[in-house]
Amino acid sequence: MSDATTLDRAPPRKRDAEATRAAILEAAKGQFARLGYDRAALRDIAAEAGADVSLIKRYFGGKEALFTAALKASFRPGGFKHWDRGAFPREVAELMAGPVPADETSTHSFQFLLRAATSPTTAPLLSLAVQDRFLAPIREWLGGEDAPARARVLAAVFIGFLVERLVRDEPLDGAERAAFIDHAAAILEAAVAPKG
Amino acid sequence: MSDATTLDRAPPRKRDAEATRAAILEAAKGQFARLGYDRAALRDIAAEAGADVSLIKRYFGGKEALFTAALKASFRPGGFKHWDRGAFPREVAELMAGPVPADETSTHSFQFLLRAATSPTTAPLLSLAVQDRFLAPIREWLGGEDAPARARVLAAVFIGFLVERLVRDEPLDGAERAAFIDHAAAILEAAVAPKG
DNA sequence: CAGCTAAGTCAACGCCTATTGACATGCCGC
DNA sequence: GCGGCATGTCAATAGGCGTTGACTTAGCTG
To answer: Distance (Å, rounded) from C-alpha A18 to C-alpha A28?
Structure first.
């Protein structure tokens, strides 16, 4: 009856505060991204990390604090840098035409952001993290005159495609898929274009 | 100490099943849109409607059923028809540059959709409603060859701007606002353009 | 006016949650 | 080898939630 999502970890980890803290944070990142703030239970997070609930309080303080910690840890600065400006639109369009990957870690950060953004509980906790770790890198990556406004637009478009993919019930078939990619790429192209 | 969001209704409404049902539905639409599925409490919904919690069970069956009912009631078919194709991009761009209106009823349906879409609990309940009441009207409004794919893209862009506005911490100042509107309008233009 | 039924009320249950404080125990330095 | 402290465990608390069933009452029907 033990949860089979993670294999039973026979060596229950030596007493190591740093390691358990990290394990809790990792589990929190996953569960918050997958379930959202409300439905993620501290008990389950602790269980997945192989730790006790009370350690969450000790190491982080509470649920909100754990959430903000996981939020910060989910965004690595500079993740945008390596994207090629020319290939970006089509690559992202194709990514968004596909299903949500089973290995969710690749899009964890964005789902995390998305879930957090659309919950009234967590939205207030976002503004700083969004500014520093999301909008600022996009701004820098875009460059140019009205980078702030254009970063907002690009972020909006990006998030929009993310939601669309999240809600999509069945995969796009061949013809619709091709058309979707074409149009999405055109939109993204317009979003990263240097000047209107 | 009574909640001041709604004035105390001195006449507590005569015994009228239909009327109370409607009142509950109306309250549910508001609270679900504002708070999302998880944080909306049946007790509060009933209180806002001036009814008892148990009536929700009697008239709707349970929370999920109430939610789907509110979801269906939130989308009026044909709401898109009156939008002029030419003015649409700039109008929407300006709408999205502004703050979330205090009178939220104007964007209730979309917030409702948004909240529902990004919660794993309610996302499965969405597919039909989204197809029938959201994508289909957009498809019809767009017309043309690959209307299905383009409707998806337009819906994604729309939702994206909605989220951006929802998360925005402070209003856009003059310069950034103008640039934002320009770029957003360009994106929306590309989304409704007849052919790529 | 009497009686019945639909409409509304009330109180309680069971479950799950975050949080907390007291307790046990492994590990490290002396 | 031993004491002390950081680490981990356990149980209990308090509150909120959806759900439920029994009770009361208003309003129509005959």
So the answer is: 15
pTM of the model: 0.86
Phi first, then psi: give them for residue B5, nearest 5 degrees: -65, -35
CA atoms within 13 A on the CB side of A31: 23
Give the residue with minimal CA–C1' separation from D9: A52
Instruction: For chain A, say whether B183 makes contact (Cβ under 8 Å).
Output: yes
Q: What is the DSSP letter of B102?
A: S
Which band of pLDDT confidence, cut at 50, 70 and 90, is reported for residue A77?
low
Instruction: Kindly indicate the confidence band of residue A84, based on its pLDDT and cuts at 50, 70 and 90.
Output: confident
Position B129 pLDDT exceeds 90: no
Model pLDDT, residue A41: 98
- Percent of chain B scoring above 70 in pLDDT: 90
A53 is written with which tokens?
């609930």
Contact by Cβ (8 Å): B89, B189: yes
Answer for the pair B186, A190: CB distance below 8 angstroms, yes or no. Answer: yes
Maximum distance among all alpha carbons in chain B? 58
| Integer Cα distance of A45 and A65 in angstroms | 14
DSSP letter assigned to residue A101: P
Per-residue pLDDT of A133-153, as tens digits, reads 788 888 989 988 899 999 999
Choose among A36, A157, A172: nearest Cβ to B157.
A157
Q: What's the CA A36/C1' C21 distance, rounded, in angstroms?
A: 29
What's the rounded Cα separation, in Å, for the pair A33 and A109? Answer: 7
d(CA B191, CA A91): 18
List the Cα angle B85/B86/B88 in 5-degree steps: 65
Contact A185/A88 with Cβ under 8 angstroms?
no
CB proximity B46–strand D (7 Å threshold): no
- Terminal Cα distance for chain B, rounded: 58
For the purposes of burial, counting CB atoms within 10 Å of the CB of A176, is it exposed (0-12), middle (13-18) or buried (19 or more)?
middle
Of A168 and B20, which is predicted with more confidence?
A: B20
Residue matched to tokens 């993310």: A162
Phi, psi of B61 (to 5 degrees): 115, -40
Residues with Cβ within 8 Å of residue A54, at least 6 apart in sequence: none
